[in-house]
Amino acid sequence: MDGGAASTDPDRRNSLLAEWRSPRTWRTALYLLVALPAGLLVSTLLVGSVIGGLLTLPLLVGAGVLLGALWLVGLLGDLHRVLAGLLDIHFARPLAPVSGGLLSWLRATLADPVTYRTLLFQLIQPPLIVLCWVVLGLLLTVAALGAASPLWLLDPAAWPVVWGDRTVTPSVSAVVGLEFLALGSVIVLGGVIDLFGRMWTRLAVALLARDPGAEAARREVVALRRAAGRVALGDDLHATLLDLTAQARDASTADAVILLGRDGTLLAGSGAWPDALLGLPDRLPGPGAADVRRAPDGTLLATLPVTLPAAAGGPEGGVLRARYAQGVRPGGDELAFLLSIADHAGTALHAAHLIARAGARAGEQERARLARELHDSVAQALYGITLGAKTARATLETDAARTRQSLEYTIRLAEGGVSEMKALLFSLRPDALEEGGLVAALRQHAHALETRHGLTVHADLRAEPPLTPEAQAAAYRVAQEAMHNVVKHARAAQVWLDVQVVPAPAGAAQVVLSVRDDGRGFDPQLLSPGTLGQRSMRERAAGVGGTLEVRSTPGQGTTVVLRLPATVRAVPEVSA
Fold it and tell me: Rounded distance, CA 309 to CA 433, Å?
């Protein structure tokens, strides 16, 4: 979604033909050319369907025709939104409609203000576009007549000009004047086309935008939910930053969003960004602030700070920049959303830095310190999501009831993020497993899995199993890897997590941990048993004297069963 930059050369901007040198002028002319037949077609279809529905209303088909007219309002509105792309306006994709049948669709459509704004645009567009073409036609006529004036001088009899009772005879000075008039008409024509482009841009943004009020809040909630999950996953920094910029662009009205490091290095981006606008701005905004200014090409650039957590030792982590097409300006709510995305980027950068340090220093003391720092950074970020969602709920004035459910879900997501942070602490500090126990760690991880990925986890964890600290760590890592495989490969909706103590045939008790899903499964004969995930789980099981079994059938899910020897301190006999 490139914003179509005009020339940034001052000499070219100040020249008489500056508008004609701008690609935007030609795209606007193309829009005016295409919008005329499109507007007439839209008007004909809407008026025809409404009249047809009213005439046939006494019959059974009349109501269906009127419903079709209402459906056409949205469909033809999408046609106008596509045409608005010629003006460098790119509307965010709509969220998936809520299923519920014809009556639900009818209620939602009639209650949506976008329906009426779209209909208003479709009603006023044809006469306005005709008026535009009348003005352009007059200027084109003057320019054409002035350009053809030398033909009048060469053969006055072939081009007679009658003024009252007199026949005007051309002269060289009159022809020269007409040529200057033609040139002036061309110059004015470029300016008028540019003016029309700005007018149609503002009109389209005001009436065709899908994201005012509650819908924008819903979209931002979805984006923040994905961003929190991606940051919490923390598997690939570059992929995380790319996903954050994509979420920011999709959920906002920006044409492009980029992330820059503190030295101006491009970290990630979504959308086309001109090379001339890369780099850090001259003035950086303070923490929690946003700087919005106009670029030399006429677009708007919003710059927001990427703030690192307090544990990082400094607030500067770079900037997030968003580029808006001419005529589009972000509101305060959108800037607050982009600031939240920037905070997520800062958390991801800090977490990646901590993980790199953990890889370089694998000592237990260093890992415990990293766990404390992660607690300071991730917990603060997730707590900020909770405060942001509650604030949004309190400040939303347009159709707040419609967004309350999404906001409440975001709050629950933030609380789940805290649970995931605790699960991360368990994975970073083996002694935390001994302090909190395997059951507590698995509950935290199951809750985080439900919150972030929407899976339903049926956890039957019972009492704390009698295991050594090493066996606890191995069991937790195996369960973690198995559930990660469910998310990554299984396409499952439900997961069953079970831990129990069962008697062994020889009399010694075993702790049995199983992870089962209802996903697509696989053929064990076709999958190499030496894959990294299975090999890692088998090595962990063997390292503490246990065994691992993986059972799967295509279309019937997968079951991972880990059996570990129980310690002597407690052997409750619980049947399988």
Answer: 26
Q: Is 263 helix (H, G, I), strand (E, B) or coil?
A: coil
Whether residue 421 contacts residue 228, with contact meaning beta carbons closer than 8 Å, is answered with no
- Distance CA(450)–CA(184), nearest Å, equals 67
Sheet holding 316-324, edge to edge: 266-270, 256-260, 316-324, 300-307, 291-294
Long-range contact list for 400-409, CB < 8 A, 24+ apart? 400/214, 402/214, 402/218, 403/214, 403/217, 403/218, 403/221, 406/217, 406/218, 406/221, 406/222, 407/217, 407/221, 409/221, 409/225
Residues 381, 312 contacting (CB under 8 angstroms): no
Reduced to 3 states (helix: H, G, I; strand: E, B; else coil), residue 397 is coil
Q: Compute the distance between CA of residue 244 and CA of residue 253 in angstroms, rounded to an integer.
A: 15
Angle (CA) 467 359 539, round 5°: 40
Q: What's the angle, vertex CA 322, arms to CA 318 and CA 324, rounded to 5?
A: 160
Q: What is the pTM of this model?
A: 0.41
Ramachandran region of residue 226, left (φ > 0), alpha (ψ -120 to 50) or beta? alpha
Taking the C-alpha atoms of residue 162 and residue 141, their distance in angstroms, rounded to an integer, is: 18
Residue 533 contacts residue 489 (beta carbons within 8 Å): no
**Measured CA angle at 310 (ends 419, 363), to 5 deg:** 70
- Contact (CB, 8 A) for 411 and 389: yes
- Alpha-carbon gap, residue 435 to 472, rounded angstroms: 11
Low-confidence ranges of the chain (pLDDT < 70): 1-17, 92-100, 157-162, 164-165, 167-168, 170, 210-235, 309-316, 355-435, 451-452, 504-507, 527-533, 568-576
Among the listed residues 399, 573, 404, the one whose alpha carbon sits nearest the alpha carbon of residue 502: 573
**What is the three-state SS of 55-121?**
HCCCCCHHHHHHHHHHHHHHHHHHHHHHHHHHHCCCCCCCCCCCCCCHHHHHHHHHHCHHHHHHHHH
Q: Let me know: does 312 contact 348? Beta carbons within 8 Å.
A: no
Give residue-wise pLDDT tens across range 301-357.
Answer: 888 888 776 555 555 678 889 999 877 788 777 888 888 888 878 877 877 777 666
Q: What is d(CA 544, CA 482) in angstroms, rounded to the nearest whole number? A: 18
Across 427-453, b (16+ Cβ under 10 Å) vs e yields: bbbbebbeebbbbbbbbbbbbbbbbbe
